[in-house]
Design brief:
Layout (H helix, E strand, L loop, with lengths): L5 E5 L4 H12 L3 E6 L4 H14 L3 E5 L5 H13 L6 E4 L14 H26 L6 E6 L12 H20 L5 E8 L12 H10 L8 H12 L10 E4 L5
Parallel strand pairs: 1-2, 1-4, 2-3, 4-5, 5-6, 6-7
Helix pairs in contact: 1-7, 3-4, 4-5
The structure holds NADP nicotinamide-adenine-dinucleotide phosphate.
Length: 247
């Protein structure tokens, strides 16, 4: 599905990002796999995937909220003189607090890491992507938490709602460059992120899911792969729920 395409994927070390790297590699994409810090286990994991699927996977390191580090990471990518065809803005963090008790800094951090940081990275990449004759595909990770109004979600849900809004605006602005912009809004996914809330929260959430289980990260990666591919050539400006049926 992605043969001959080059993709930047953030948050590639674990969870949905790691699953997306493997799904993309399996489908023939070359990848710049972005992680926060240099890590030998990550490098060897990426090398194994690269050999298994016969694609190149280059680790790139930056803290996504640090603009200097992000810029340096993108410069490394630029030096390779390859087109960037796909950007998956996956890195993100979740924290849940009742609004009254929430440390205010939490709100700033959620907006910083889940909204401002991916948009900064996207701007740097888009400035290159506009030169591609065949455009490109950008995928953001929103969340059902940003589409509904769950308790304790002012900060995280707000940041994910904002990124869903940016998806729609950018899909209009970038269409003239043949760049499609979409978002995936997962429900509950079996990754480390679920540790951020207690068991009771998840038990209640699973009760609301029609198929009565959480998603595996690969099930989210499959949708990201579809949106990145030419099979989704007419899908633009969408925030697609991958939640097992909810509500
Ligand atoms: N899991 C869910 O139920 C769920 C539901 C809806 C949406 N999502 C969204 O899906 C995306 C992936 O989540 P996940 O479940 O895979 O979470 P995860 O397992 O916690 O992985 C998050 C990844 O993002 C990276 N990251 C976080 N903050 C970063 C920063 N400041 N700079 C650079 N990298 C950073 C982490 O890097 P390190 O490896 O260095 O920690 C990690 O690789 C997120 O945007 C999340 O909001 C998840």
């Amino acid at each position: 599905m992605l043969q001959g395409k080059n993709a930047v994927i953030t948050g590639a070390r674990k969870g949905i990002g790691r699953a997306t790297v493997e799904t993309f590699a399996k489908n023939g994409a070359n990848i710049w796999a972005c992680a926060r810090e240099k890590d030998m286990a990550f490098e060897s994991d990426m090398e194994t995937l690269s050999r298994r699927y016969q694609v190149w996977i280059h680790p790139i390191y930056f803290e996504i909220t640090d603009e200097t580090q992000v810029k340096a990471g993108i410069q490394k990518i630029a030096k390779e003189r390859q087109s960037v065809d796909i950007l998956v803005n996956n890195a993100g963090e979740a924290k849940y607090d009742s609004f009254i008790l929430m440390p205010f800094e939490r709100l700033r951090h959620m907006v910083d890491v889940n909204y401002i940081a991916p948009l900064y990275l996207t701007q740097l990449i888009v400035r290159r992507m506009t030169r591609n004759p065949n455009g490109g595909s950008i995928i953001f990770l929103s969340s059902v938490a940003g589409l509904g109004a769950e308790l304790g979600n002012t900060a995280y849900g707000g940041s994910k709602s904002a990124i869903a809004h940016a998806t729609k605006v950018l899909s209009k602005e970038l269409a003239e460059y043949r760049i499609r912009v979409n978002a995936v809004a997962p429900g509950l996914v079996n990754t480390d992120m679920k540790k951020e809330a207690d068991e009771l929260y998840w038990e209640n959430m699973i009760k609301q899911i029609y198929i009565k289980r959480m998603a595996e990260p690969e099930e989210i990666a499959n949708m990201i792969c579809f949106l990145a591919s030419d099979l989704a050539s007419y899908v633009n400006g969408q925030v697609i729920r991958v939640d097992g049926g909810m509500g």
